[in-house]
Predict the 3D structure of the following.
Amino acid sequence: MKLYEYEAKEIARKYGIPVPPSIVASSPEDVYRAAEEIGGPCVIKAQVLVGRRGLSGGILFADSPEQAKSVAKKLLGTKIRGDVVKSVLVEKKVCIKRELYLALTVDRGLRRPILLASSMGGVEIEELVKKYPSALIKIPIDPFYGITPYMSRVIAVKLGIEKKLWKSLWKIIDASWRIMVEHDMELVEFNPLATTCEGELVALDAKMIIDDNSIIKHPEFKDRAFREYSRYELLAKKHGFSYVELDGDIGIMCNGAGLTMATMDVVRLYGGDPANFLDIGGGARRERVKEAAKILLEHPKTRVLLVNIFGGITRCDEVAMGLVEALKETSSRKPVIVRLLGTNEEEGKRILSNIGIPMYTELDDAVKKAIELAKR
């Protein structure tokens, strides 16, 4: 579960991490009052759950309450990378001397938490790693021992942080670790973590992601769980299959994460663009197949539905019946391309042939046809 910046900063503040004075507001009038209360130049920051908001015009500056109100009118109600701006954070403008990057996350390859830092703060970490891979410091953390002071000293030396700020850096890193452990976070990120003209370390932006599987342990977040999910992603979660929305136009439904990713790769190979990742899972019965297919048939982005099933514990006839029911309930006219192999394969093919759905033995042929229809 992603937290809004203001929520992440509330947590950071409770753990003693320095953040600028700020007030969240949801109307131009509230923004005006917040700017008055903060006093002086301020930053108006759109509260959305997507990245790169600065590049999308989601962070603006104001020198007076009147200007802050005017800026809020421009931001509130607009969309930033598809996310509607319902509130903004009015924050005191800080005199920045230097911008750093600091984060704690989980390295899936190492199977352990990792501490990240860089002297190039304010830059998207993905872009930073691509352009300057050596600029990112990575320190693996033994979960049994946790964070230790030497890690902070290593970062301070490598980033050239003034010695008088070493103690502050350690306090921020230690607090970040406690936040991560106590809230079951997948990510605790401060970008930028700035050294100010007054000689302090201040977290100017904060990003935190809580492991969805731990929400049951944190009732304070229960009412906010899964809010970043789309309507279709919530339906997928309800019916027990994995679904991730992408930007393409070919809907993909498979059984097994590996087969789904391989199918997406083949679609890309032949010049197509997947609209989603959808894994119905092993042993899926017709009800789950029906609900999965309905999502793809109803989704406005999807032009073609490509089904690739390798039936082991998943029965091909159950998949076929689920598809038939989905087509009846949605009255969809979108083309459906199917490749069925495995358990009860012949029965599955018979069921689908009765309603005129073309069947394919080779994945390459099915993918090429799906791409052709999507482009048409």
Q: What stands out?
A: The longest strand covers residues 96-107. The chain has a mean pLDDT of 91.
